[in-house]
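Hey, sorry to bother you again with one of my protein questions. I've been staring at a protein lately and its backbone has me curious. I owe you a coffee for this, so here goes:
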Amino acid sequence: MIIKDIEVNSVLSKSNLPVSDYSVNPYVGCPHACKYCYASFMKRFTNHAEPWGEFLDVKQWPAIKNPEKYRGKELFLCSVTDPYNPMEETYKRTRTLLQQMKGSGASLSIATKSDLVIRDLDLIKTFPNARVSFSINTLDEQFKDDMDKAVSIERRLNAMKVFHDAGVRTTCFISPIFPGITNVEEIIERTKDQCNLVWLENLNLRGSYKSVILDYIKERYPHLVPLYDEIYLKKRRHYWVNLDMELRAYAKGNGLEYVRDDDSMHLPFNAKPIIVNYFYHEEVKKSAKRNNCPE
């Protein structure tokens, strides 16, 4: 792992994401080295020759002046790294950011694959409408190990429960959904009593990691090659249309709300989790109409 400090003018960047006003990335790169990580595109702009997952730039920024100016704004940690990657235990850049923004009145949304976030529970609770999202796309630890170097699924589940029990809004982010591998209903069953939201996102193969994932499927799941060819080479959407219908029926049968919407930030804090489908919005709708599938 090649680690270096870099000086930046600010760690807060205005965001175009629908879930936040500002993106906060205390690091460049991520030691979790997820094989499917969309953020690997960052290498085009940062001039890192090292493989994704083998470098980390630690951002050093001036103390945030007038943090109150962010009152009522939504901060998202993080869009292109994990704020609680293993090096955070040493460098504490995420913790520093939270300390600088404490009492600002800004809202906070955190996405992570790590239970190190528990360290900052007391700080996170001071932010209004704080939410912590845990990425869990399998309950199979072997498949997890094939895909990333983050902590075990069990540790993520335990951390989710700690936050949920502490009254912090929690999200189970089932992403990316691997066709034929990710058992979405099984994950919801395991997490529905310790999360407030379930986000669903499809596996979107693009860029340099498309061939990596397809080669992995050929080696480890050869029986799924025809399915992946249909989805990722022939660009057909039937799998996602059918999964959407199956999950809608599952939710209805289990008394859960199911929405295909970008308004999850404004959904009520329910006792039972709300399932939010984010995959292939327009394509699923169009394909459903062509095939007379109910929306």
Remarks:
- The domain at 8-290 is CATH 3.20.20 (TIM Barrel).
